[in-house]
Amino acid sequence: MRTIIKYVLFDLLRNKTIIVYALILAAITISVSGMGDNASKGLLSLLNITLLFVPIISILFSTIYFFNSVEFTELLLAQPIRRKTMLLAQYAGIAIALSIAYLAGVGIPVCILYYTAATITLLVSGLFLTLIFSALALLIFVLFKDKTKGIGAAIITALFFTLLFDGLLLSFIYSFSDYPVDKPLLGLISLNPVDLARVLVLLQLDVAVMMGYSGALFKKFMGSATGSIYTVICMLCWTVIPLIIAARVFKKKDI
Amino acid sequence: MKQVLLLHALLLYAATGGFAAIIKVHAAANSIHQAIEQAHSGDTLLLQQGFYREHDILVSKKLTITGQGLPVIDGENKYQVFIIAADSVLIQGLQIQHIGKGSVIDMAGIKIINAKCVTIRNNRFINNTYGVYLQNSNRCYIVNNTIHSDTKGEINGGNGIHAWKCEGLGIKGNSISGHRDGIYFEFVTHSYIADNTSFENARYGLHFMFSHNDRYAQNTFMDNGAGVAVMYSRGVVMYDNAFNHNWGDASYGLLLKEITDSKIEHNRFIKNTVGIHMESTTRVDVRHNLFSENGWGVRVQASCSGSNFVENNFIGNSFDVTTNGTMMLNVFNHNYWDKYDGYDLDKNNVGDVSYYPVSVYSVITEKIPPAMILYHSLLTNIMEQVEKVMPSIIPDMLKDDQPMMKKLKL
Amino acid sequence: MIEITQLTKTFRKFKALDDISLHFERGQTISLLGPNGSGKTTLIKSILGLVIPGKGTIKINGAVIKDQWDYRSQIGYMPQIGRYPENMTIGQVIKMLKEIRKDCKRYDEELIEGFNIPAVQHKTMRSLSGGTRQKVSACLAFLFSPEIFILDEPTAGLDPVASELLKDKIIKERANGKLILITSHVLSDLDDITSHIVYLQEGKLLLYKTVEELKKVTGQEKLNKIIAAIMQKNHPKECLHYENNY
């Protein structure tokens, strides 16, 4: 397993897309930090960028990579290797590569410029999003045989979590505005890792008060140790469950 | 010539009932009590440096009590210290500390009851329930005092300066922190509050109730639990104050409730959750203010009417203006909005298209606050952009027809 | 050595393999022939465990391969299209495979030297021509001296020199008592090396005979003639469409 991870990393860290991804993130981070005079505002912009770019790039790049390396996967699977090992090793390789790109692009500049608890939360959230969306990409790869369909599914998945889910959430809030929806909201948010990441970071910034009563409730829960653990568990579930399903499906898949 | 002067002095003495004596007081058991008892009206007590454990000192004569080297008078967390019940008393240069907390009476460092023209200046009030407490007293001056309490966040505590049913007060140059309200006014009229700094108080930096025709200027209100509240009053002039960083779940720079015929001019609202929150106000003029980096710049409830928002700068607020209805009986004109992206073809420095300062997302969150959970999501960012192109949800009556192209010099 | 019994594989409604039973032994070189979509690749992939068959069993050295993976250490596989991670060099790919196959200590580097791979081993896979990639695939198949070779279109894209080299290697390995499975549409390439012919059509096994037998029956010497003769006899209306991957 380690061997495959090592060589996937070998390959990916010299991949142009990954390098460009890291450079673009770094450029945006530095320019955003240069513009805003206060850390909170800079982090807010970085949060928006993380929430938009990380899911889409992670899922699209991973999906394309998995589909493109299907022949090599086939060759490796003709070796005495377990399918699960092979699949998870590939996932680990790509997730590590994307995480390194994110850390290099956002992490290093941001830690030099403003190092606070919120920064760490932002980075942890960004890393989790990377892990989650490459796991989803893996799931898409094992579920679809056709590359084009797979890429389509990846785009729809990214769009769903960054945009459509929030639309549904808004209409939910709208239709149940006469009821106390704060607690159900807490549950619903857990169904979207992007929202989870967003709320988690916002709570660390002083704009948290903007969220008013709901924010207070969220802060009370998610700001507490239990809440942080809950969020991390949710994020972990979002990583692990797609991986487990993918491994199960892959076991039966014809290549 | 010398003799004439002496004669003159004698005559003066006769008129006032004797020479104004200066009495030195040293720290000892009941020394202040005894000194006051022996003193005559018009005398000056010079309190020497030291630690005085005395309380319930009733000043019922016209005395000047001056501390030398900041003598400390300690209420031992059980008692109150000065009670002034005579006109024209002057207290200065003292440190009054550790006033007790009574359940029946409000205990204060200095309590002024039914007296006129009392001056309290250059004192330090440390860890008192109430700092200065005025009751039915007119034309009193509270100047350059430091009033601080460590009991932060205690909403049941007392106020720094508390005035009830007074007229013509002057409160100047004080620094007030750590109390419930920094300055509290109830039924206080024709008074003047200036150059004070009120910060880190549990509730309001300044709290007005039923206090008409007052003016406050050049004060700084920072980091107070809920900012500054002005309620049920008319004819209040708020001029050149700074409302900074009153930041919290239910915090305001300035909360206005049932205010009539008042003026808010040349103030700076920076980094408050809400710059100004207005409810049921009538004819309030908001001019030449700066609203910068607030969560909400101005929150005008639909119950407000006849107010003008003219020539203000709105810069870097998350939301510039929100309202809870579609009716708008107030006027916005000639303001500078940093979010305005219209054009100015005739180069008269006034934008050619109207600016709608209420963003669609703020309308939604005003109606259903839980929607705030989507703050800073891609969805709401897109909604803002769409609404900018095709306004449909935002109240179209709330607009600035003459938005300024450049930041106004205030 | 390989025992296939009643193997059936269905993709949705399409039957890729229909009740195939075959038995391969050491020292055989089997040519898998058949038109496009006849199930050749599916059969190969079933043996490799890449395709999970619906019915039937495959035994290798007497053991059922279902849900097993370590039996593949006995197989050297050369895929039809060799695509490798773009930014890896040839040297790295070979090194990677060696690291994966830690169980194997004895490397057969005859082809690596024959193709003169060390001279280009610093080149990235992205920059290679199809033929060179095919050479790499061939090298990898033979590297761990397995007992069974599965070669899917081995000579496609190879230059004549390399092609001959590969053929010599195949003959040599067969002489060593290995089992070799080959699919190819260039029948002339298979002439000297094949011992058995398996002919599949629409997932069904049409023919499994030794070349000698076929030569006797048809009276032809060349493989393509033999096949043509059989096809005309069995299916006079049908033409032979050999797989064309270009």
Explain this structure to me?
The complex is a heterotrimer of chains A (255), B (410) and C (246). With 255 residues, chain A is an all-alpha fold. Helix content of chain A is 84%, strand content 0%. In chain A, helix 5 runs antiparallel to helix 6 and helix 6 runs parallel beside helix 11. The model of chain A has no long low-confidence stretch (mean pLDDT 88). Chain B has one domain: Single-stranded right-handed beta-helix, Pectin lyase-like (Pectate Lyase C-like). In chain B, helix 2 links the parallel strand 1 and strand 2. With 246 residues, chain C is an alpha/beta fold. In chain C, the strands form two sheets. A six-stranded mixed beta sheet of chain C has the order 6-7-8-3-9-10, sandwiched between helices. In chain C, strands 2-1-4-5 form a four-stranded antiparallel beta sheet, with helices on one face. Chain C has a domain of 172 residues: P-loop containing nucleotide triphosphate hydrolases (Rossmann fold). Classes of the chains: A mainly alpha (255), B mainly beta (410), C alpha/beta (246). Chains in contact: A-B, A-C. Chain C: This is Cu-processing system ATP-binding protein.
